[in-house]
Design brief:
oxidoreductase activity; five-stranded parallel β-sheet; single chain; two-stranded antiparallel ribbon; alpha/beta; 3 domains; about 20% strand; Sufe protein. Chain: A; binds iron/sulfur cluster; Rossmann fold; about 300 residues; Alpha-Beta Plaits
């Protein structure tokens, strides 16, 4: 796979270096660095399109803020790439209106905007999926009894944090591993924004934490905490599905809250980030946080 990378700022450099160290250097056919002090609104972004663009299969644009992202579909077209990943680590980076503009300017190109990058999963596109098999939403294999014995990384966050977390949760009590994975992500440290994203109602940093906690929960086969819906009081046909509409995990594409056959909300304890937003939003007071062992199939 020929990967062409467009990078800007500290976040961009960190991702590029980390991907190169984790084995993608030989796939990179080019790297274009965009200055990180450009204005958010640009009339003539054409001037920033690189003069020489290699043939590529996949374009990765990391760390670009605002209108400069409009060069990405132009570069894709000139490189022949039909697949583009524009990860979002900050709410101000690529707002929904700009996402639509980018997509509409290149309808023949598959463009994904994972928010955060470590929520990327295969989407049915040859090259995005090839990338997402190794990099994106963390996936782990864990050997454990009462303690975590061995952790194998099956898919790592593109910043490399999953390897760091995997090494640092070995030896700790298994029931504490999901919480500890979240703490270790902050220690690494995760570079996603601490500002609340108005689209998802939570911070992108928190969303990154939910992804790695989910990886641990799925690998050990249980979660220690989750929001739970009371089916006796859930009135989903009356409430416009407030919990589904406001769950930040659902907003970024996860099936964390769904409706069952009785049309009542059900929360998946594997991916619930325990943010409590659904508890505040449910007009019937039907959701509570529970701390117990939830077995994950
Ligand atoms: S607590 Fe509710 S809103 Fe938050 S992640 Fe879990 S299900 Fe979604
Ligand atoms: S749990 Fe509350 S917000 Fe969610 S569907 Fe049921 S009544 Fe509506």
């Amino acid at each position: 796979m020929k990967l062409y990378v467009i990078s800007s700022g500290k976040y961009g450099s960190r991702i590029v270096n980390s991907l190169a160290e984790m084995g993608l250097a030989s796939s990179m056919v080019g790297l274009e660095e965009i200055p990180d002090d450009l204005p958010e609104f640009i009339d003539d972004f054409q001037q920033y399109v690189p003069k020489s663009i290699p043939t590529a299969d996949l374009i990765l644009a990391v760390g670009l803020f605002g209108d400069i992202n409009m060069i990405v579909p132009i570069i894709a077209r000139q490189s022949g790439a039909k697949s583009v990943i524009i990860p979002i680590h900050d709410p101000a980076q690529v707002p929904p209106g700009l996402q639509r503009e980018i997509e509409e300017s290149a309808p023949e190109v598959k463009i994904v905007f994972p928010k955060p990058f470590c929520s990327l999963e295969p989407v049915g596109d040859t090259y995005i999926d090839k990338f997402a098999r190794e990099f994106g939403k963390p996936k782990l294999e864990i050997e454990a009894g009462n303690l975590i014995r061995k952790v194998k990384v099956l898919r790592t966050a593109p910043c490399g944090s999953t390897h760091y977390i995997a090494e640092n949760i070995e030896g700790i009590p298994t029931e504490e591993a999901e919480q500890e994975a979240g703490n270790k992500l902050h220690n690494y440290p995760c570079n996603a924004s601490m500002a609340t994203d108005p689209v998802v109602g939570d911070t992108i940093l928190h969303l990154a934490g939910y992804q790695v906690k989910e990886a641990v929960r799925r690998a050990v086969g249980f979660a220690m905490k989750s929001a739970v819906v009371d089916p006796e009081t859930c009135e989903a046909d009356e409430c416009q599905h407030e919990c589904i509409k406001h769950c930040p995990q659902v907003q970024i594409g996860m099936d964390t809250v769904t409706l069952n056959e009785e049309e009542q909300a059900v929360i998946d304890p594997a991916s619930c980030g325990c943010c409590e937003i659904c508890i505040q939003e449910c007009p019937y007071g039907s959701i509570e946080m529970e701390e117990k062992k939830f077995i994950i199939e």
